[in-house]
Design goal:
It is a single chain. The protein is α/β, with parallel strands linked by helices. 25% of the residues lie in helices and 23% in strands. It is built from eight helices and 18 strands. It has helices at 30-36, 65-78, 94-104, 128-139, 254-265, 286-293, 304-316, 321-328; strands at 5-12, 17-20, 23-26, 48-58, 84-88, 105-106, 112-115, 147-151, 154-157, 162-163, 172-173, 181-183, 187-189, 204-205, 213-217, 237-242, 268-273, 297-298. Helix 3 runs parallel beside helix 7 (304-316). It binds aspartic acid (ASP). Aspartic acid (ASP) is lined by residues 12-14, 59-61, 90-92, 116, 118.
Length: 338
């Protein structure tokens, strides 16, 4: 039987870090050696894998649009040579990168699994071993055809993932969508919820452009006038993290006016919820209808990570504001349900 081929792309993150006098930092060249020493990865029952190591290696707090494009290009250039891809990445912004790649890789029909660890491989009790081994196995099986995130035994749709624990080994959750698979003794896939890509679809990479995007979390007592200064023509999109189903305080009547002004400037205002699970329902309460009247769009049950990535993607496509507004409310890659 021909063994599957998996391309492993190491971008940085805790998994390959070492303690330094300033805290953990990635070390060039360490990863190839560390992977070579993991006996499971030498088994002939594993897919064959090859490693691409980025230079410089990054703490994922420093990941931005240019690194997303670099990862996207690495997948695109190697797409026909491999059956699947594993991206090793820091956990801090992993859900943003997974969301961004899900939009950038149009027509994807192979597994792209993003993973990392909370404890470096160089330290005792590292969770990185299972995360790498299982991710390579998943990338070498023909089951998922989408960008997903594997961590702590759970396989999550990339654009549904959110980092839910700063220090737990089960660090990610999928609050609004079932797990794609769970890895216990066996890897049990939940076939009914996997993304159905078009047969024989052609991969197209959309590189993202730097776009002026903001995220504003609403809190009790917020003085909206303080934020008016950021809502200029320069701001292309903003995600509002509102209360519950999309509510904002209505005693300070300035926000709808500011949103309306932003909308007239062409800013796309997307309403998400601060709650991890559940969905935005604009108009369900008086405190949210002002937002839709002012031209805001609903992010339904999208994570903030997915909403930010989707704004980058839609602006990079060069679409009209009206079309971007429409598409923000539509399900494009399984990132939202209504
Ligand atoms: N700060 C690290 C990073 O995101 C944390 C991690 O990898 O878990 O790169």
């Amino acid at each position: 039987m021909n063994r599957k081929r998996v391309c492993v792309i190491y971008t940085g993150g805790t998994i390959g870090m070492f303690p330094t006098e300033n805290g953990y930092a990635p070390k060039k060249g360490f990863f190839a050696q560390a992977m070579g020493e993991i006996s499971d990865l030498k088994s002939t029952r594993m897919p064959q894998w090859e490693l691409i190591e980025f230079d410089p290696l990054l703490d994922s707090s420093n990941i931005a649009v240019s690194q997303w494009n670099q990862i996207g290009r690495a997948i695109w250039e190697n797409y026909n040579s491999y059956d699947g891809f594993v991206i090793l990445h820091g956990t801090d912004t992993m859900a943003y990168t997974a969301s961004a790649l899900s939009f950038m890789l149009e027509g994807l029909s192979k597994p792209v699994v993003i993973t990392g660890s909370q404890i470096p491989l160089s330290q005792l009790r590292s969770d990185g071993f299972d995360n790498i081994i299982t991710s390579i196995m998943i990338a070498g099986q023909d089951r998922v055809k989408e960008v997903c995130l594997y961590f702590g035994g759970k396989l999550i749709r990339g654009n549904r993932a959110t980092k839910s624990s700063a220090d737990g080994l089960i660090a990610f959750d999928s609050p609004n969508y079932p797990y794609l698979a769970e890895a216990g003794i066996d890897i049990e896939y939940n076939d009914t919820v996997l993304y159905k890509s078009e047969e024989k679809s052609q991969l197209n990479l959309v590189e993202l452009k730097q776009t002026s995007i903001g995220v504003l979390k609403i809190f009790p007592g917020i003085q909206f006038s303080l934020f008016e200064s950021i809502m200029t023509e320069r701001l292309q999109g903003i995600v509002l993290e509102t209360f519950g189903t999309g509510n904002i305080p209505s005693t300070d009547n300035e926000l709808p006016h500011i949103i309306e002004k932003a909308f007239n400037h062409g800013t796309i205002v997307t309403v998400c919820s601060q709650c991890q699970s559940g969905t935005v329902r604009l108009g369900a309460y008086e405190t949210s209808s002002a937002l839709s009247k002012a031209g805001a769009v609903s992010g339904f049950n999208m994570t903030t990570e997915a909403a930010v990535a989707k704004l980058y993607y839609l602006f990079s496509l060069g679409l009209s504001r009206d079309r971007i507004k429409e598409l923000m409310e539509e399900d494009m890659r399984g990132e939202l349900s209504k």
